[in-house]
Amino acid sequence: MNKFYLFILKSFDFNRLKTSYFFWLFFIITILIHVLFVISTCNWNYLGSLGALLTVFSLLCSLKASYYPKFNSDIKPPCSFISDKWIKITPNASFKAQTVSKEYALEANKEHNKKIVSEYSTLITTNIISTLGTVMWAYSGYISSGDLTKVYAYLKELL
User: Fold this and answer.
1) Tens-digit pLDDT profile for residues 139-156
2) Domain region containing 89
3) Residue 24 domain-assigned?
């Protein structure tokens, strides 16, 4: 569970959104799925559902930045593998770096990840609950209307 929580935390890292393949892959696939739903059902309300998902995602990212201003610096591991050496960076005024053993670095990073997950567990839980609630709110009406069977029939026809 800690790896899943850490993945969620890192996917909401503002510094990485520009380069995060997960974020852009999720974004493009979500848009394509909704366009497919619109084409197959002729129901333009799916774009509204897409808007709800994008809105909650952007709100969660921006709220994270305002409620947890040190998040981007906190999430960085204490030891990094640079130029065939494990380096520990001490966050003091001089930002000294010292070479450490691989065992020490792996253990320090593991302990750091546990600390981060426990410290930000409220953020993770809030993100998961908010996203699930938005998905239920945005898509619950389509279940009773039979749109999902139309999408299934359209996909079956395409394949």
Assistant:
1) 877 777 777 777 778 778
2) 73-119
3) yes
